[in-house]
């Protein structure tokens, strides 16, 4: 049987690590945006502390953060590997490293992955899957989605880049 390490203890995983993550994230956002002024480190720290403690106090929010962190770590590693490979292939160029369509594509993939993962860990995946792909009973919804997709494609062709 594997011994339980300090980092895998339920106290660390469920309380300490989510608190540190949210505290640091909120503090960094408040410092970077200077929302409360230039010299407000103490106030930013207090607000970050309260938000971090509130996260720990509400189990559904805390569980969502705990379940999302492995997905975030995996996506960050995948993006890092992709960017390394892309950098080796393309090399350094002046200006924007990724083109507009690469950014849109990567953003779309990450968004679909994140939404899918959120639906799975929240327990709504079967409901959404049944809503879109259940046989016959949601024809109106599927028709509306298909018409919206067709209109989107036509608009992209008409108003797209003209070369």
What does this structure look like?
- With 163 residues, the protein is mostly helical.
- It has 3 domains: 1-57, no CATH class; 67-123; 125-163.
- It has helices at residues 10-33, 41-57, 59-90, 100-122, 125-133, 139-159.
- α1 packs antiparallel against α2 (41-57), α1 (10-33) packs across α3 and α3 (59-90) runs antiparallel to α4.
- The radius of gyration is 22 Å and the shape is extended.
What's the topology here?
Layout: H1 10-33, H2 41-57, H3 59-90, H4 100-122, H5 125-133, H6 139-159
Helix pairs in contact: 1-2, 1-3, 3-4
Give a brief rundown of this model.
The protein is mainly alpha-helical. The chain is built from 6 helices and no strands. Helix 1 (10-33) packs antiparallel against helix 2, helix 1 (10-33) crosses helix 3 and helix 3 (59-90) packs antiparallel against helix 4 (100-122).
List keywords for this structure.
163 residues, 3 domains, 77% helix
Overall pLDDT confidence = 81
What is the succession of H and E elements?
HHHHHH
- Which band does the percent of strand residues land in? under 5%
Structural class: mainly alpha
Largest sheet geometry: none
Low-pLDDT ranges: none
Radius of gyration: 22 Å
How many domains would you count in the coordinates?
A: 3
Distance between the first and last residues' Cα? 64 Å
Instruction: Give the strand tally.
Output: 0
* Proportion in helices: over 70%
What overall form do the CA principal axes indicate?
A: extended
Number of helices: 6
């Amino acid at each position: 049987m594997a011994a339980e390490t300090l980092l895998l203890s339920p106290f660390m995983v469920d309380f300490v690590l989510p608190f540190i993550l949210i505290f640091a994230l909120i503090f960094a956002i408040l410092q970077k945006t200077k929302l409360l002024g230039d010299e407000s480190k103490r106030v930013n720290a207090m607000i970050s502390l309260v938000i971090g403690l509130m996260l720990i106090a509400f189990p559904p929010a805390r569980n969502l953060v705990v379940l999302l962190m492995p997905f975030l770590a995996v996506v960050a590693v995948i993006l890092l590997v992709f960017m390394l490979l892309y950098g080796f292939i393309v090399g350094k160029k002046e200006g924007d490293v990724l083109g507009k369509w690469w950014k849109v594509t990567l953003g779309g993939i990450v968004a679909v992955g994140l939404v899918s993962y959120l639906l799975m860990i929240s327990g709504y995946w079967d409901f959404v899957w049944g809503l879109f792909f259940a046989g016959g009973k949601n024809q109106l919804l599927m028709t509306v989605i298909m018409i919206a997709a067709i209109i989107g494609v036509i608009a992209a062709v008409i108003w797209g880049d003209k070369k």
